[in-house]
Write a structure and sequence with these properties.
Length: 312
């Protein structure tokens, strides 16, 4: 099977490419990022095109490799913060990029299932318990709005033109290679031998921490469930863990006597609770394999290895 993987240069893209290649798929990557051949082949890509998700670039890949038998779409906005700083750019990458991809698949590869990586950010800030897929979506950030718009765009192509589509709403994805957000920021501070790890927010915020390898497995599995009904599935463990608990365990994995403090100021677009109801994914045969405690230990080990390599 030949799979077009958009956004393959990103954190989740790396792990998804590796998972697909390890399972015998031919993976062709498209997205932003300069890569030499040795580097993209190392993560499992057979080819890589550095550019927009556009008809011209998709045509170029199809001319070289044939039409894809599946498309996994990871390209688009990547986080809440940048969407506040550059909302028009986030809209272009997420909404317009997804619509352009759907139109290209309709014209060039109508039998190929399309799996989109969406986000729990579509649910917004009004939920206090585990969130099912049929919960009302009231996004809390441009990022969340744009992911929801992209879902609706794909659903329109599924319902109107018979494209086989599935949307996977990812919760708090982490793992080796993640160089942003809470874990990266905290480890960067801890590397400075600080006495107090000072973080934003209250520490009581609840999140569903999902290892990237588990996310890659469900993104791959979702292709077999893609249909004209455009199923939406949560990708999370169903376990609510506070940011304070995560930070404290991260410090314990790091070693030393650093304490943790929180500013008490909520960040823009940061809901109090984002935890998945993961029952639908379980009916598909998927459950998370990695626990967050062992996952954080692995993350700290990976982070420290990067500091050793650069001589810090």
């Amino acid at each position: 099977m030949t799979i077009f993987l958009t956004g393959a240069h990103g954190f989740i893209g790396h792990h998804t490419a590796q998972h697909l290649a390890a399972n015998g798929k031919t993976v062709i990557g498209l997205g932003h990022g300069a890569w030499v051949e040795a580097d993209y082949r190392r993560i499992g890509l057979s080819d890589w095109l550095n550019g927009e998700v556009s008809h011209a670039n998709l045509d170029a890949l199809a001319a070289k490799h044939g039409a894809p038998e599946c498309v996994i779409h990871l390209a688009g906005g990547s986080a809440v913060g940048p969407s506040f700083a550059a909302p028009a750019e986030d809209f272009r990458r997420t909404v317009i990029g997804t619509s352009d991809l759907a139109e290209w698949v309709r014209l060039r590869a109508p039998q190929a299932p399309v799996v989109m990586a969406s986000s729990a950010a579509v649910y917004g800030a009004s939920h206090t318990a585990a969130i099912p897929e049929n919960a009302r979506c009231v996004p809390y950030s441009p990022y969340g709005y744009h992911k929801h718009m992209a879902e609706l765009s794909l659903a329109s192509y599924a319902h109107s033109f018979g494209l086989k589509v599935a949307c996977v709403r990812l919760f708090s994805v982490y793992g080796a290679g993640l160089k942003k957000q809470l874990l990266w920021d905290a480890c960067t501070k801890l590397a400075g031998n600080i006495d107090v790890l000072a973080l934003g927010g209250h520490g009581t915020e609840l999140r569903d921490w999902l290892h990237v390898d588990d996310a890659a497995r469900l993104l791959t599995l979702a292709a077999t469930h893609a249909s004209e009904q455009c199923p939406i599935v949560n990708c999370g463990t169903g376990e609510a863990t506070s940011v304070r608990e995560i930070a404290s365990h991260l410090v314990a994995c790091w070693g030393g006597s650093t304490s943790v403090s929180f500013s008490g100021a909520a960040r823009a677009g940061d809901p109090q609770s984002l935890v998945a109801d993961a029952n639908l994914a379980a009916t598909w045969g998927w459950t998370a394999k990695q626990t967050w405690k062992s996952g954080l230990q692995d993350y700290v080990a990976w982070f420290k290895s990067t500091q050793t390599r650069v001589g810090l």
